[in-house]
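User: Hey, quick favor. My workstation is busy. Could you predict this chain's structure for me?
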Amino acid sequence: MSRITKNLVASILVACLGAIQFGYHLGIMNVPSQVLSCSEFKVPNEDVPYVETWLGKSGFKQCIPLDDEQIGITNAIFCLGGIVGSFFVGTICNMYGRRIISLFNCLLSLIGALIIFSGNSFSTLLWGRLLTGVACGATLIVGPLFIKEVTPPHWKGFLNVTNQVMIKVGILLTQLIGIVLNDSYRWRWIFFCGAIAALVNLVLWLEIDDSPKWLFSRGDTLGAEMALFNLRGGLYQEAQEEVQTWQREVEQQNSLANVEPMGEYNVMMGPSSFWQYIHKELYWRPRQIITILLMGQQFCGISSIVFYGVKVIDQVDPKHSLEINFLIQLTTVFVTIITCIMVPVMNRKPLLLISSVLVVVSSFLLTIGINRNDGTLLAVAVFIYIIGFAIGLGPLPYLIMKEISTPPDQKMAQKYGTVCNWTATMIIGYIFPLLFDIMNGYAYFVFTIVAILLTYYIFSSVPETRNSRNFVEMWMGF
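Assistant: No problem, here it is.
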C-alpha cells in the first residue's frame, strides 16, 4: 500500500503543524524581546497613547521590565520544558496514543501562549514559556513518530523533509509576523498568533485517526486495519496483509527477546532503561559521538541566531535588522529543502566537515563585522553561517546518531541525544545575552574556537556511517 491519498496527506500535514508550532515558539522571542522588555520603545501611532488602545484599556502593560539575564532565562526555561516534554512523552504516547497526546500538546501550547499574551510580570512569562516548551518538546517526538507510522515505506524520506522544513517555516512565520507587529503597542499579538496556531492544530487533530501501528500495539487489530484502510485507500485486503506483516515482525522480536542476555543486557533487545544506556561501558563510543555532535552544534552558536539574531544585527544595522533576519530565515528554509534532498545521496563525514569549516569562517567574520560595525560584512557572515550550519551540523548529527547505534539501541540513543541537544540549547539561550553584553562581537570568537575544536573532533573521531556494511567496518581505524 504505497499510494498517497487525500486522507494520508491531510494526516501528515496536521502532524507537521506541530513542527510549525515548535519552530514558531523556538524563535518567538527573537523579534519582540527589545520592546517586550522595555529596552526599546517603538510607537506605531504618535496620536494614540497606549492607554487608549484596547490592550491598554484592558489592563495589559505596555512592556515588562526585563534585564538581559531575565531574557536569557525565558529562553532557557523554554528549553527546560523541551527536555521534560521530549524525555517523558515516549512512554506516555505509547500508553494513550499519538492523537490524544498531540491534542494535549496543542492545548498546552494554547494555554502557554495565552499566558504570555496576557502576562504582566516576569513570572507569568516564565510559566508561559515553560508550558510551551513542554508542548514543543513533546511535539518534536510525537509528530515525526506519527508521520513515520502512517507513511508508506517508499515515501518516508520525502515526508521527513516535510517535517524538517516545517520547523524552519515556523521560525520564518515568527519573523514575518514580527515585522508587522513588533512595536510597543502590538507585540503581544505575536504570542496570540501562536495561540491561534495551537487552536487550529487542535481542531484539526480531532478529525484525524490515530496511528494504525499504535492501535495494533494495543491489540486493536480491527481498528488498525480500518485506520490503515482510511489512510491509504485501495483494497481492504491490502490493509489486512500489512497488519499481518506487523504481526510477524512482533513475533520475530518476541523470539529475539528470548536470546540469552549478557548480564543485565540482552544483545538483541538493547538497553532496558535510559540509566543503563548512559552508564554502560558498552555504549561509550557512540555515546561520546552523540554527546559531542548534539551539544557541539549548539555550542557553535546557532541558538544565538535563532533566539537573538535581531539583537545581534541591531548592533550594526538597526534600520534593517528585522528585514535581514527575515531573509536569513527564508534562506534557511530553502537550504533545508536542498540539504534534505542531498543528504541521502552524500557521505556524512565530508558534508559535516564542509559545514563545520564554513561555521568556523563565518563565526570569525561575525566577530570582525560586529567589532568594526560593518553591516555588510555582518550580513554576509550570518548568511554563510546559516547556510553552512544547515548543510551539515544542523541535520546530520541526528542521522549519525541513528546510524552509529545498533537497531535495538536507537530508541535510547535518540532520547539521550535529544536531552543533550536541549541542554546545550538551554545553556546558550541563557548565557549568550550576558556573554554578548560583556564581549560584544568577541562572543562569536568563542564560538569560532568551539567550531575549530568540533571540526578537529569530526575529522579525527567520527566514522563515515553511510553505506557501511556492518559496525566492524564502520569503526575500522577509530
